[in-house]
Amino acid sequence: MKVVLKVSNLNTNDDVISIKDVISHNEGVIACEISIAKKEVNIVYDEKATLLDNIIASIEELGYSVN
């Protein structure tokens, strides 16, 4: 499954690194691409291995706002 998440407080390369790191720790994540300009996180994941809610929760636990 492919999903695009809007992250309103995504501003720096440090944010990109932090978000990629936490997303990659979710089992079933296949790919992740982040755009600072668009404030978007594109994720490809296996919905049988993880839930989107778990991915969103892991990002929000870092202090980011997922819309």
TrEMBL record:
Pfam families in the cross-refs: HMA
Residue spans crossing the bilayer: none
Domain (HMA) ranges: 1-67
InterPro entries: HMA_dom, HMA_dom_sf
Protein name in UniProt: Heavy-metal-associated domain-containing protein
Naturally occurring in which organism (per UniProt): Clostridium gallinarum
Lineage: Bacteria, Bacillati, Bacillota, Clostridia, Eubacteriales
